[in-house]
């Protein structure tokens, strides 16, 4: 099993755990993950810039965060409760190796969105094309994914669902705290996710 496939398998496992935390029987709910993908694509296009009538500079960091969010939904679409995470990871790695990219990032993103709208599917090849065109590799995806997934768990554990969670601490949003915590850690550490959670816990107001 390659390093990339191992990382994808870890992300699949984390995604299943997160979805189960939100709803124990999430498989039976028929959640429209594909819709979340195309809506995120539209939001991302605003961060990238598409208006020809005004000067716009791509907000690369925000685009990368949106791609990470899309991967959460893409993984959720692929988990079927029957296929092992190892097999799903191998298939995703293979699809992502067949990079599909159009003339520019915006056009590649539209291919990703179109698959979600027309086929209700996650187009891993187009997703890999978006990653490539924005200068993102599998390690960037893994770092961003594990960080965001851990933050989502942290939010749930601290009252996100009942509205008691505090999103801004010490003058910074939780996302900003997350970035600082992740930067201070080694992503290759097998306890990376646990250390991210610990780092957030140490900063969160008691």
TrEMBL record:
InterPro entries in the record: dUTPase/dCTP_pyrophosphatase (IPR014871)
Name of the molecule in the record: dUTP diphosphatase
Upper lineage: Bacteria, Pseudomonadati, Pseudomonadota, Gammaproteobacteria, Alteromonadales
């Amino acid at each position: 099993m390659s390093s990339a496939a191992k990382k994808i398998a870890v992300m699949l496992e984390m995604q299943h755990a997160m979805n189960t935390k939100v709803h124990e029987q999430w498989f039976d709910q028929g959640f429209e993950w594909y819709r979340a993908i195309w809506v995120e694509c539209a939001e991302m296009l605003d961060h990238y810039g598409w208006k020809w009538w005004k000067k716009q500079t791509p907000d690369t960091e925000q685009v990368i965060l949106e791609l990470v969010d899309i991967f959460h939904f893409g993984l959720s679409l692929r988990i079927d409760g029957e296929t092992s995470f190892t097999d799903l990871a191998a298939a995703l790695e293979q699809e992502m190796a067949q990079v599909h990219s159009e003339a520019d990032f915006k056009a590649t993103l539209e291919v990703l969105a179109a698959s979600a709208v027309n086929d209700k599917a996650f187009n891993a090849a187009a997703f890999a094309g978006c990653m490539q065109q924005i200068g993102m590799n599998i390690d960037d995806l893994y770092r961003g994914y594990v960080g965001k997934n851990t933050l989502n768990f942290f939010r749930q554990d601290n009252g996100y669902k009942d509205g008691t969670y505090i999103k801004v601490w010490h003058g910074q949003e939780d996302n900003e705290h997350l970035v600082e915590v992740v930067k201070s850690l080694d992503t290759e550490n097998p306890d990376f996710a646990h250390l991210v959670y610990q780092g957030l816990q140490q900063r969160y107001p008691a």
